């Protein structure tokens, strides 16, 4: 019986990026998820083990994002093999850092590589989006697309699906601070209003356009002015104790922009220097300390590669 084994990594991501709700996201170097796949020619029911999740994630292959996507891929390719999956979570769950996206992508990427890459990344994207549907009820791409392709991704359209890769200025460093509080995605979605004031729509689209212009021109000063959220942040900030004080301290210590990562509760900040990025992280952590909330700091360059074989 022939058995093949592969190990892969997929990165955490920052979605929305303040000005692009559900349409912008970028990948970071770490943290992320790792998977070890063992595929045999002899078919047997899929086996799933998970490390690092404190028993929070489902072990039923029909309910976990990593195994759901692998099953979809095998059905798409007409493959009937035995699969063992060992998923290691190396990032916080329910953090706003694309945890479910990383699981979906790392499994699909690893299996595709093991099979000789029969599917392009563009062909993998709709499959990994189904992992997001299983995790949160919506097949959105603002986490899975940057996780899969790397870099900064703009989702231009969902029907038809079209994603665009945007340039990231080389000096940008991301600081992520994850406070140990529970903000379920369902709640962070529920606090959003069904309508947006016209004046806020105008301000937000102006900032999105300026943000994209700043990326192409590597204009850090314009980038900093553009990363302002008038639509989503005011509603979700109330779910994160001390958010506005943390944001104020981030700007005071050199952040170009600072807002909520994905649906939260993690906070991201962008800066143009690694030392500055570390200082920003410590400043935000100190704010959470005052709220008697423990937090974890991650400082990383932007990941242009996406997932990789280990």
Briefly characterize the structure:
Helix content is 37%, strand content 26%. With 310 residues, it is an alpha+beta fold. The strands form two sheets. Strands 1, 2, 3, 4, 5, 6 and 11 form a seven-stranded mixed β-sheet that branches. It has a four-stranded antiparallel β-sheet with strand order 8-9-7-10.
Question: How would you characterize the overall build of this protein?
Answer:
The protein is α+β, with helices and mostly antiparallel strands and 310 residues long. The protein has ten helices and eleven strands. The model has no long low-confidence stretch (mean pLDDT 94). The strands form two sheets. Strands 1, 2, 3, 4, 5, 6 and 11 form a seven-stranded mixed beta sheet that branches. The longest helix is centred in the C-terminal third of the chain and has 20 residues, at 198-217. Strand 3 (47-51), helix 1 (65-77) and strand 4 form a beta-alpha-beta unit. The protein has two domains: 3-166, Ribosomal Protein S5, domain 2 (2-Layer Sandwich); 173-301, GHMP kinase, C-terminal domain (Alpha-Beta Plaits).
List keywords for this structure.
single chain; 310 residues; alpha+beta; Ribosomal Protein S5, domain 2; Alpha-Beta Plaits; 2 domains; seven-stranded mixed sheet; four-stranded antiparallel sheet; 10 helices; 26% strand
